[in-house]
């Protein structure tokens, strides 16, 4: 895995060249030939696409608002008492809902679309072109899972087609095309051809990019289980036969650095390091209770009670990580004096320091990692596919055990201090073996734990699978009727910049543009 440090100068230069991007599609389609292949190596665009996928350099704008404020609390990994953490309380903040859409098109789609076009048909960039296609799927996969129907086929193409008001494509049309792109790109990758020098994830390894493509294909295929089981089966079996990840050495993550300043640091850590977030973000009671009840060895390396004042808000100061001492904070409560005062929560420990926080010296490092897709996730998806009776080698139990083991071992990739011993993992699996009768629940609940810090994926898989079984909150004034939201709403600014297409997309949503409306694959 390459260190991000060698890319810092490149990212700073690219940021200077591109910081005039706007939220409107017209501003996303500037002339890429100003930095075209004659004067600019397109490998640098791959670097930009990858780092921007981890979050905006505008102080983690959409990571903070979409992943943390919304998804991490809606999926009950974390809990937060501040009123502006809308996902914890199912309230609606239009700007926060719009954040991912606005930043993704301006800061991800623009660059990856130009990368695809600038490398198309050029022999010297044959593998880079295929990696770009895979990255483009990764980027759009998340956008469409968050919102549903979105600009896809025409997005990022304004310079090439002069169309600055792209239509909102139906998700049922987007998914087959993304799967086709992965299939073609994985097949076309060739170790005898160019090495992508701007690759922060796999250092240009064609072998690992092939595995990643098939692993992502597996994820997309599984996403279709509720809406089209036969189509899901076809693509999952193809992905498994193609060759997905085989160990944690294949895990896709980006290692960040403080050397380049704001553009290169870890986006989640930027938020967790804020002085007004440190005292208030805590593990959810749902998460801590699950780990404690099951004697999960991850508890001791995920959670700690903050140390006593004055060090309770000092990130490097170690707290109490004894598993039995951990206590999760219930979701849906306020600071003192709010409509639902945390002081009134059952078992309130007397202060927020009585609730468990992430072990910040492991998971709030500015030079930490952003995990994108893991071998543990792959094995758990294969376990589900096998449990469904699909043509997958091995047994559901063997894939389940491999997935749990890999997920636990992957924590050491955040920090060596977060390592879980092989003996502890074996003891856990022996005490809690795979049970076919409850297999789907076991698998997807483990997937929920395995995707902590990747709450985009946790939220999507929960909507698909229904697991873990979560108890919603019913905060006063919530907009969902006390049910967990199913999506984020579109930016209201789209009504003026892309009016007809925006109106058409809203008209296709059952119930309208609401947080309770469902995307295509999220069949009731």
Describe the structure.
The protein starts with 7 loop residues before the first helix and ends in a 16-residue tail after the last helix. It has helices at residues 8-18, 43-53, 61-74, 94-119, 126-147, 158-161, 171-188, 206-222, 229-242, 267-272, 285-293, 299-302, 360-363, 375-387, 396-409, 422-431, 439-450, 455-465, 494-497, 499-508, and strands at residues 78-80, 150-151, 168-169, 252-255, 281-283, 303-304, 357-358, 369-373. It folds into 2 domains: 4-260 and 460-508, Alpha Horseshoe (Serine Threonine Protein Phosphatase 5, Tetratricopeptide repeat), CATH 1.25.40; 274-363, no CATH class. A two-stranded antiparallel ribbon has the order 1-5. Strands 2-3 form a two-stranded antiparallel ribbon. Strands 4-8 form a two-stranded antiparallel ribbon. α3 packs across α4 and α15 runs antiparallel to α16. The protein is mainly alpha-helical. It contains 20 helices and 8 strands.
Key features of this structure:
mainly alpha; 524 residues; 2 domains; globular; two-stranded antiparallel ribbon; Serine Threonine Protein Phosphatase 5, Tetratricopeptide repeat
Question: How is this structure best summarized?
Answer:
The protein has 524 residues and is mainly α. It contains 20 helices and eight strands. The strands form four sheets. It has a two-stranded antiparallel sheet. The protein has a two-stranded antiparallel sheet with strand order 2-3.
